[in-house]
Amino acid sequence: MCCEAQIRFGIPVSIGEETKEADFGQKRITQMKRRYALFIAFAGMITAFAPVQGQIQRTEKPPLHGKHWMAITGKPLAATAGAQLFHQGGNAIDAACAMLAATCTMWDVLSWGGETQALIYHPKLKKVIAINALGVAPTGATVDFFRAKGYEFPPEYGPLAAVTPGTPGGLCYMLAQYGTKSLAEVLAPALEMAAGYPIDAQTANSIERGKERIKEWPYSKKVFLVHQGKEREAPEAGELFVQQDLLQTLTKLVEAEKKALAAGKDRKAAIMAAYDRFYKGDIADEFVRGSKEQGGLITKEDLANWKPIEEEPLHINYKGIDVYKLQEWTQGPAMLQSLQLLKNFDLKGMGYNSAPYIHTIYQVMNLAFADRDFYYGDPYFKPKAPIQGLLSESYAKARAATIDPKQNNPQVLPGDPYPYEGKKNPFAKLLQQRSKQFTPDTESKKDFVPKHDANSTSSLLSLPDTALWASLATDSVYMDRLLRGTTSVEAADAEGWVVSITPSGGWLPACIAGNTGVGMSQRLQSFVLDSLINPFNVVAPGKRPRVTLTPALALKEGKPYLSFAVQGGDTQDQNLLQFFLNTVEFGMTPQQASEAPNINSNQLWLSLGGTKIDDRKPRAGSLLLDKRTPKEVVEKLKTMGYSIQFGERNSGPINAIYFDQQHGTLWGGSSNNGEDYGIGW
């Protein structure tokens, strides 16, 4: 990675720590003319080179540098928790688990009852390990059950939206297997925070916005609405927020570990004794009781039977870089599919964020997401997704050939990867029926911004004030969806351990299970009830939903190269794809790449939000651009069939670590869209 980004786009972005002038001379233009025919060459010259001659500025946040370790996550206090573990001699697993525990305690934007998805680089084995700590649908969570209640998708909120908790088990498993510290040491920051920490404005205001729903659940009301009866019932920013029930739950975990150690158990067994107390002991009893009291389905058997799974990740090679993602129970393979497709295009030649570049990225993502929306699901349930075919270069080449370089395709459909595995597609008739029944919404949405589960309010800032506030005032459901999110955790150490986590679930407004202080997950809504939408992701007891949560790791020449993750629902792999291309194709540093302007597509089935088909159908041609996009680019894209909206920051927030093998140091990046924060040493 070079220190200067070759940005070919007329908007202010960083090219290193010193301001530089971009030089796009006649020689380069001549090379472009020779390389590209007709449309690509013409459009590329207009959009990539003409607008501005090098309007360059520093990144808004400084880059992070470290020699020994790096800790990055969604809140400054949580990053500090990771730094504490590093200073105590812990490794990256210890620090990552401390940050995970702290973010759950801070409700950023998740809870202890949510789910954890992780990729770990093991320096001794020299391999990437995947951790699946996603909960499962509880007993009784069937298609018939939800349809009888009038749902077309499982509900968004409340106890009926919950899968079994995964984060406590995932944390204990990672720490026991690959960490060095005790659970007591790792949970110490979270315990102190549960006893009372100065709550941040973002979380406090989220509680206030969601207080009417919070009042539906007695245990949530008790925890969150600390000023009941007053005009503002949520905590004030900076007020000490005390979670006595959660403190007791976390204390019970530490007590279980201590008791096991006193009985002669080794470190791993002692940590797993705490695990057992959560899933099989008195914590489980209270969790189930509190869930059922409020109408939930989770049983004691559901908790006892659930276990985290250590898996082999999926990966592809892109220009000498091995990119790793979790299996198809996440949307992660969509990024791998996108990279396979992009091997068929000269992105550098198009010019960074030129009209042809944006068009190509949009079309490629739509192809990958069309496959995601039909073929991805829990690999431990039948039918088994044709993942080998989906990730094959031959399949990608065939799909790439369908892209029209001049026009958006509003009718992108799932492909047929089965022949690339030497098989016949058992869902051919279903696909035909699906294409007839579900047509994308092509209506232009004047004030449309993608309603993924973690777009920030900055995405709306381009709207006229009257339209913005009228919309928010009259559509509280939209506002609620808009502000939901998750977080990410990135950690690396001098020994070579690397961790990339995208945890989530139990975001505000959350339903707390009894007196545990633990917010229940809302991930059940990512299932479908109709096999016509996705036969691989139909809800069933014991099954995992196909989630959006998708950490990433990349190796180069067998060594760590990039560790990166982002929040943002269906936009996650859109933003991670562009972040990766920013570094690999255009030489940006992690901070530059995390702040660079991304595009977002909503021509896909939403994974969260709404319980009706029309809430989630693809919106063909809907394209979200950075508000600084040059007029020439915008006008060109309009002629290609796009309905364009603008946002101030569309990049994440992305958190990342780059491994500078030349100098033996770490570079960190944490985007300027949110409260994400990193510390290095």
From TrEMBL:
Protein's UniProt keywords contain Transmembrane: yes
UniProt keyword annotations, A-Z: Membrane, Transmembrane, Transmembrane helix
Transmembrane parts of this sequence: 36-54
InterPro entries for the chain: GGT-like_enzyme, GGT_lsub, GGT_ssub_C, Ntn_hydrolases_N
SUPFAM superfamilies found in the cross-reference section: N-terminal nucleophile aminohydrolases (Ntn hydrolases) (SSF56235)
Protein name as catalogued: Gamma-glutamyltransferase
Organism: Sphingobacterium ginsenosidimutans
